[in-house]
Amino acid sequence: MIALKNSMQQDRIRRSAALRSAVYSRIRTLMEPGICTLDIDRVVEETIKSGGGVPAFLGYGGFPASVCTSVNDQVIHGIPNEHPLTEGDIVGCDIGVILDGYYSDCCKTFAIGEIAADTRKLLDVTEKSLGAAVKVCRPGGRVKDIGKAVTEVVEPYGYGIVYSYCGHGVGLSLHEDPQIPNYYPSRGLNPRLKPGMVLAIEPMINAGKPDVEVLNDGWTVITADGSLSAHFEHSVLITENGAEILTSWGG
Ligand code: MG
Description:
Elements: H1 7-27, H2 37-50, E1 54-55, E2 67-71, E3 74-76, E4 90-99, E5 102-111, H3 117-135, H4 143-154, E6 160-161, E7 167-169, E8 176-180, E9 198-201, E10 204-206, E11 212-214, E12 221-223, E13 229-231, E14 234-238, E15 243-245
Antiparallel strand pairs: 1-4, 2-4, 3-12, 4-5, 6-10, 7-8, 7-9, 9-14, 10-13, 11-12, 14-15
Bound molecules: magnesium ion.
């Protein structure tokens, strides 16, 4: 069942998403060699709380932190730790916010210092695939248009599109219907997009094969072949004419 949000709910979700902007503005300045992901987590938690919000991931299913920090070959759900990041690393920072009971979800993969050209290309293509996915979101379109748009951008580069995890509805809770595969063709339902839907669109793209594994911590998803992985995500409202990106990476 896909919840359509009324204008009051849309406004609340918009505000939840806007709090993210302050969070990313702060953490983007920290992305230097020597920072550890636990430092990032502390700043994320403090910034969300000082804006009146609640970190949506903290305690969700037992997750121990406010941000999922996924480094290099980690795809999603990485747990912050004290290991310092080094020049050339990449780190996905996936952040869920609850504000006044309304949820938003967003991720950006950051570079630590100078990164290799092929790493930069992976980040750029993944971000571009998210942009292409948002562009096809409009009333009358369908959920599978999103995975198709991602696939059309990513496939020419030979990257692997993660198929084990997908995007989702968001707003009244963290994970709502519909499921949004990032690849095409895909199985499953293909509901029509309607004004009032809020979708967390989140391509996860591996430099190598699309297969993933979960580490023994029960959370961290890594690429099976050890290749790098990038993840970009926005929460997007379907409007009468198209789509509005609600979340922001803070400039
Ligand atoms: Mg998400």
